[in-house]
Design brief:
The chain is mainly beta and about 260 residues long. Helix content is about 10%, strand content about 50%. The chain is built from one helix and 21 strands. The chain has a six-stranded mixed beta sheet with strand order 2-11-10-5-6-7, with no helix packed on it. A six-stranded mixed beta sheet has the order 15-14-18-19-20-21, with helices on one face. A four-stranded antiparallel beta sheet has the order 12-13-17-16. The relative contact order is 0.13.
């Protein structure tokens, strides 16, 4: 074997990302860019037991008899690009189960080499829902924001009308077959827009409410006003607010709580 017959298989060092349902290309090539048309190209799931087959090109054709069942009809290696050393794998209609580590193995009659690439499947979850979670003794408004169905785990943050991050009091994260769910609570003592924002890399969903809080000292009256973009969230806020209204009426003789609900359409 001469030095000219040797080559190096190259895959990206950084993980690749795709949203579930999209098509994705898992890059793999040889350096130098020699033709691999006459070689054996195998794609495996390196993170699965026995490195199960994802796609096989051999003897100038695809041979996927032993391919993992879930990949049937969804993989492709471009035969024309093999002439320039490009053995990238196209994976169609990405599923969450496709997430993992892939190995690209290329073998000639005298030489072989391989490389791996990590693939992460993103699932954008449901829009966040904001509900009223109570009031504290100082008149602060407890808000709860929850969103579910994400993958991988997203970030949730509260922002005021100036875009300044608000400190959350509690954070809960759970994972089930539908993905990650996140929940955070915050207490606000000021009026203005309150944003609950859930982010996953460049994906972002947001719920906005408008809180108008004022206190009249002489009448010992506190007024809360919410403006919710989501009708479902607004109904829940209304129910919570009415419950606390009756609780405050029962416990306090001179304290009055007024809730005004407005819906954006």
């Amino acid at each position: 074997m001469t030095l000219a017959e040797q080559y190096k298989v190259v895959c990206p060092a950084d993980p690749l990302f795709a949203v579930a349902g999209e098509d994705v290309i898992l890059p793999c090539s040889v350096k130098p860019n020699i033709s691999v048309v006459d070689m054996r190209v195998e794609w495996f799931r390196a993170d699965l037991k026995d490195s199960q087959l994802v796609h096989l090109y051999d003897d100038h054709e695809d041979r996927n008899t032993d391919q993992i069942q879930s990949y049937r009809g969804r993989t492709e290696v471009n035969h024309q690009k093999l002439q320039t050393g490009d053995a990238s794998l196209k994976l169609s209609s990405v599923k969450v189960s496709d997430e993992g580590r892939y190995k690209c193995f290329i073998q000639s009659k005298t030489w072989s080499d391989d490389a791996t690439v990590d693939f992460i499947v993103e699932v954008v979850g449901h829009p966040p829902v904001v509900t009223v979670d109570g009031f504290d003794d100082s008149g602060g408004l407890h808000l709860q924001c929850e969103s579910e169905g994400w993958s991988p785990e997203p970030d949730l943050e509260w922002l005021d009308s100036e875009g300044v991050s608000l400190s959350s009091e509690t954070t809960e994260t759970h994972r089930n077959t539908d993905g990650f769910s996140v929940k955070q609570t915050v207490t606000v003592h000021h009026s203005g827009k309150i944003h609950c924002r859930v982010k996953l890399r460049h994906h972002m969903l947001e719920a906005v409410i408008i809180s108008s809080i004022s206190t009249v000292i002489n009448e010992n009256t506190t007024t809360y006003s919410y403006d919710a973009d989501d009708a479902g969230a607004s109904i829940l806020m209304y129910m919570y607010a009415m419950w606390y209204f009756h609780e405050w009426q029962r416990r306090l003789t001179r304290k009055r709580l007024t809730v005004t609900l407005r819906l954006n359409r």
